[in-house]
Specification:
It is a single chain. The chain is 24% helix and 16% strand. It has 24 helices and 34 strands. A seven-stranded mixed sheet has the order 5-4-25-24-23-6-7, with helices on one face. Helix 3 packs across helix 16, helix 7 crosses helix 11 and helix 7 runs parallel beside helix 13. By secondary structure, it is α/β, with parallel strands linked by helices. Among the domains are: 198 residues, 3-Layer(aba) Sandwich (Rossmann fold); 260 residues, Dimethylsulfoxide Reductase, domain 2; 152 residues, Barwin-like endoglucanases.
Length: 936
């Protein structure tokens, strides 16, 4: 019968060549091999040599081929010809588009640069876009961090000099107990999955703390279905139990934290010497001494009496605060939804693994005091957290509380614990402060974003009004760090603190899933004044796809997809480092665009050249850089330090610091699109205090000089704002904010209820409502991807068993969900593994009709929906006539997860509500089947 068998080619030609670059289907930035046939992408696989993913590639990464070929891709620059929001455009040339943009921007720059608000979404070139904005001269720049996870980053840096995810990672090789808080599946996807698999294979325990049991929490050995917004109370109860049992690392606290530092009893500030160094009592001599002197043994229990006043250590204050019965498990159980027994059991688990299963690595190292240690002590407990605990109005203090929990166990920067990734750790004092010095036709006087150290660093004008349109770094949210992107459109529309002329945005879907109060924002973008002019006069927007935001722009600058562009994943920004190595990467055009589009960063270079912006032009007015690739290679932030750390110098043999290498991009491409420099043995743990690491970091250009520091359990910057609210200092907050600042600005982490709870009738709106991204999606892009939308074509609202049965729901039912702000009618589904008083859904699945090249009957726009319609960027009115941002009062982090709702059964409508009229699309609707053949 063999003669009847079909003839099969068992060794087909897979590709003509493989081009290696960096994935952009999420923020993991994995290495990918792009297989090419006849100049087109045939398929995408993981790069086994890449430090991030080591060959692993998820569904998103593989689906990148559908992203690059998406029907929704914009095809040419667009000029609005119909009313804003109509989607009526005409295609124009790039010369015309750049002339229009220059015509809008040039008079602003020459007269009043603050009239430009330039804000970018989830791009990974903030170092570059910030440099552009600084040289334009506007104070109004930030990226998406303010509505994502600024609480996490800011609390981490102010407390321990770094934070989770891009700043650090668990020690997967040694940890025995891994605890996650509020992590959705889209964050750090491949590394977390690989890490969890690695530790579970050797029997380590995983504890997931999240109201929703999905993704990582679904594979956890123990799930804690906590009440949203109560994480800080739960964490401080663990701290209470550990301190009560004496299960804390006293040596670690004494040597590496400010626990032994004396606090001035009169000011609440840390006591310092004439050089500004924190003061401790040396156990050996009993004398007051700077913390970093050779041979000093700081005394945690010391007191210092001077001029009739007794000054205590931070450790005293820690004990006084957290041993208080208000933090006992029995006292917090009802509010957190976690039983007292569960809290005690988890505390006992943490203590047992940290101390009873401690181990030693036979690795000598020398600390910043000059003391040599023969071994490194491992405490194999590690933690990870993200937006779930961050996106609350108490998120900053909750994140700080989590870091205090890690630190008292001695599990940060030790074997088995949480480890920093270069360029972190850095003390908060090593970061720039924010700047707002605006002069016509000049660059801003420094970076926009940074870390304030006290009231003197706030971004206020001479009359005390906010210098920035988003009110970042003001008394309303003093320690903003990433800005408040969710407030830009609302403030610009209200003219509070002032009016702007042009809103310039990149990859930020602010008329839909990236805004609270989406319907209201659409109204703000189209509102006209008494003269019939738009309240926000001009809007420039750049995106690669026909998103909801495109329709609200006057000028659209079409971006490339990620395989058609240059990108720089830089040590100056958000690199791909691992705990044992510094690493950065590039993207490069592995395919040429088949449309009239340009990479947005290149467009910014071209605009800078036309505007004659400093930093981009030479003294004679000629351009320094022709495009973004030119900038990546030739820009130097300071001598020897450029966007890329690898293959520097004429011979490509310098790393970190080095001369410009004109062939640098070619060297990266030859190396798979990335560069890695490993940390020497003995320098890879105890980084904030390890002399070898500090010296290595100086050589890499991370520091200019060694900067060892103490972890800040007690935060002096936070105390300085509280002290100002108490009436001290020259710069004073307005009266209406004093009480709030006194309450929330506690230098030791505290917990307080969500601010929205104060203005909401909790009897009427008793249910918590959350939204999170699915593992298969990132940004808005994923849900127009022909492969990925088959996984999540629409999103039900998930209800726990208690609410499901209480309201008599059945499969196929719909519900009306109401908040103080709005109402939606949506399909529901039952989920048993869910906090009893919480409902949730996937974010960014719902689409508006006419967008993303989807058909009008697409499930995304008929059954898909957003919780955003229920959330307002302002808190419920208090009757004081003031605009109170729905944000963390310390950092301005958008409080997405404080939402309270009520729910009832509803008749099934024809489509989810609210429904908006279709937008006319600048691109054609995609075909019913998306298929093509690559190669012969």
């Amino acid at each position: 019968m063999t003669f009847q068998q079909p003839k099969l080619n068992t060794s087909p030609k897979v590709s003509d060549e493989v081009r290696q670059t960096t994935c952009y289907m999420c923020a993991c930035r994995c290495g990918i091999n792009v297989h090419m046939k006849d100049g087109k992408v045939a398929y995408i696989e993981g790069n086994r040599d890449h430090p991030v993913n080591k060959g692993v590639l998820c569904a998103k990464g593989s689906a990148g081929i559908m992203q690059v070929n998406a029907p929704s891709r914009l095809r040419a620059p667009l000029k609005r010809v119909g009313p804003r929001g109509s989607g009526e455009f005409e295609e124009i040339t790039w010369d015309e588009a750049l002339d229009i943009a220059t015509g809008l921007l040039k008079p602003i720059r020459e007269n009043n640069p603050e009239k430009l608000a330039f804000f970018t979404g989830r791009d990974q070139s903030q170092s570059f876009t910030g440099f552009w904005a600084q040289n334009f001269g506007t104070p109004n720049f930030a990226a998406h961090g303010g509505f994502c996870s600024v609480n996490m980053a800011t609390a981490g840096i102010y407390t321990m000099g770094g934070a989770f995810w891009e700043f650090g990672q668990p020690d997967w090789d040694h940890t025995k107990l891994f605890m996650l808080f509020g992590v959705a599946e889209d964050h750090d996807s491949n590394p977390i999955k690989a890490g969890i698999g690695k530790i579970k294979a050797r029997g380590a325990k995983v504890i997931g703390v999240n109201p929703v049991r999905s993704g990582y929490n679904a594979v956890a050995d123990e799930w804690v279905g906590i009440t949203p917004g109560s994480d800080g109370l739960f964490i401080l109860s663990l701290v209470h139990e550990l301190m009560k049992a004496g299960k804390i690392d006293l040596h670690y606290l004494a040597q590496y934290t400010n626990a032994p530092v004396l606090v001035d009893a009169e000011t609440g500030l840390l006591m310092r010497d004439e050089n500004g160094k924190e003061l401790v009592i040396d156990r050996t001599t009993g004398k007051l001494t700077p913390f970093d002197q050779k041979g000093v043994q700081p005394d945690l229990s010391a007191q210092y009496r001077h001029a009739g006043t007794t000054h205590k250590t931070v450790m005293h204050l820690l004990a006084e605060k957290y041993l208080d019965p208000q933090y006992a498990p029995e006292a917090v159980a009802e509010r957190t939804g976690v039983t007292a027994d569960k809290i005690k059991t988890i505390a006992a688990d943490l203590a047992r693994v940290a101390f009873d299963e401690a181990f030693e690595l036979d690795q000598e190292w020398t600390d910043f005091r000059g003391e040599t240690h023969k071994t490194m002590t491992g405490r194999p407990v590690s933690m990870h957290a993200m937006r779930g605990i961050s996106a609350h109005s108490n998120g900053f203090q909750t994140c700080r509380a989590l870091h205090v929990l890690q630190i008292i166990l001695g599990t940060v920067e030790v074997p088995g614990g949480f480890r920093f990734k270069p360029p972190y750790p850095k003390p908060y004092t090593a970061h720039p402060k924010p700047h707002c010095g605006v002069q016509p036709n000049s660059a801003l006087d420094g970076p926009h974003l940074g870390f304030v150290q006290g009231p003197d660093d706030l971004m206020l004008k001479e009359d005390g009004s906010p210098a920035r349109i988003d009110k970042a770094f003001t008394w309303e949210n003093p320690m903003s760090a990433h800005g408040l992107m969710h407030m830009v459109i609302s403030n610009a529309h209200a003219g509070d603190p002032y009016k702007i002329d042009t809103l310039f945005m990149y990859m930020a879907n602010m008329s839909w899933n990236s805004s609270m109060n989406s319907g209201g924002v659409m109204q703000m973008l189209t509102d006209t004044d008494e003269n019939g002019d738009y309240v926000i006069p001009n809007i420039i927007y750049s995106d690669a796809y026909s998103s909801e935001m495109v329709a609200y722009a006057d000028l659209v600058l079409p971006d490339t997809t990620y395989l058609e562009r240059h990108d720089c994943i830089s040590l100056l920004d958000r690199p791909i480092c691992e705990a044992d190595a510094a690493a950065d990467a590039i993207r490069w055009p592995v395919v040429e665009p088949d449309r009239d589009v340009r990479g947005f960063q290149t467009v910014l270079v071209q605009l800078a050249n036309k505007l004659g912006m400093p930093g981009f032009t030479n003294k004679d007015g000629s351009a320094k850089y022709q495009d973004y690739a030119d900038y990546i290679v030739n820009h130097q932030r300071k001598p020897g330090i450029g966007p890329l750390a690898g293959f520097r110098g004429e011979n490509a043999d310098q790393v970190g610091r080095g001369d410009v290498n004109p062939d640098q991009l070619d060297r990266y491409i030859e190396n798979g699109g990335f560069f890695v420099e490993h940390i020497p043995d003995g320098a890879n743990y105890y980084k904030p205090w390890n002399a070898s690491y500090q010296d290595w970091a100086v050589g890499m250009g991370i520091y200019d000089a060694p900067e060892p520091y103490l972890f800040q359990l007690y935060s002096e910057p936070v105390r300085s704002f509280q002290r100002a609210a108490e009436g001290h200092g020259d710069r004073q907050p307005p009266e209406h904010l004093r009480d709030r600042l006194k309450a929330v600005m506690d230098p030791l982490p505290i917990w307080y209820p969500a601010l929205e709870d104060n203005g909401v009738d909790l009897d009427e709106f008793p249910i918590h409502a959350l939204t999170q991204r699915p593992m298969a999606m990132y940004h808005s892009w994923g849900t127009q991807n022909a492969w990925l939308r088959q996984l999540h074509g629409h999103n039900p609202l998930y209800l726990p068993t208690k609410l499901w049965e209480q309201h008599g729901f059945a499969d196929g039912d719909w519900a009306r969900v109401t908040s103080t702000h709005g109402e939606i009618t949506v399909p529901v589904a039952h989920q048993a593994a869910l906090n009893d008083n919480t409902v949730w859904t996937w974010n960014a699945i719902g689409k508006r009709k006419g967008t993303w090249a989807l058909s009008e009957d697409a499930p995304e726009s008929n059954k898909g929906f957003l919780l955003n319609h229920l959330i307002h960027e302002l808190l419920p009115p208090k009757g004081d006539g003031l605009r109170w941002s729905n944000s963390d009062p310390i950092t301005g982090q958008a409080a997405w997860f404080d939402l309270r709702v009520k729910i009832e059964k509803a008749d099934a409508p024809a489509e989810s509500q609210p429904a908006f009229a279709p937008i006319k699309s600048p691109v054609a609707q995609g075909p019913s089947e998306l298929k093509w053949k690559v190669g012969k």
